[in-house]
Amino acid sequence: MKSTGIAYLLWCACIFGLFGIHRFYAGKSISGIIWFLTLGLLFIGQAVDLILIPGMIEEANGQTPRLPA
Fold first, then answer.
1. Total-model pTM
2. Quick check: 3 and 58 in contact, CB under 8 A?
3. Where are the domains of the chain?
4. Backbone dihedral region of 28: left (phi > 0), alpha (psi from -120 to 50 degrees) or beta?
């Protein structure tokens, strides 16, 4: 089982230039490569991922992602 907390820690790796590593962890390697090569889609995609990480991890764990209320 993948952890949302670890995904957020990996998201913080962007401070060291490792954009998209949280996407590799969530099993989204194509978008992980895109994030890495485009600096997290010029930081905008990186910021949006703060909201999307829980759903990505639920999907990676085989659960149905919940929609925000």
1. 0.86
2. no
3. 4-60
4. beta
What CA–CA distance (Å, rounded) separates 5 from 43? 20
Tokens of 6: 């670890």
Dihedrals φ, ψ of 20, to 5°?
Answer: 85, 0
Tens digits of residue pLDDT in 6-33? 999 999 999 898 999 999 999 999 999 9
What is the CB neighbour count within 10 angstroms for residue 52?
Answer: 14
Q: Express as a percent the part of the chain with pLDDT over 90.
A: 84
Helix/strand/coil (H/E/C) assignment for every residue in the chain: CCCHHHHHHHHHHHHHCCCCHHHHHCCCHHHHHHHHHCHHHHCHHHHHHHHHHHHHHHHHCCCCCCCCC
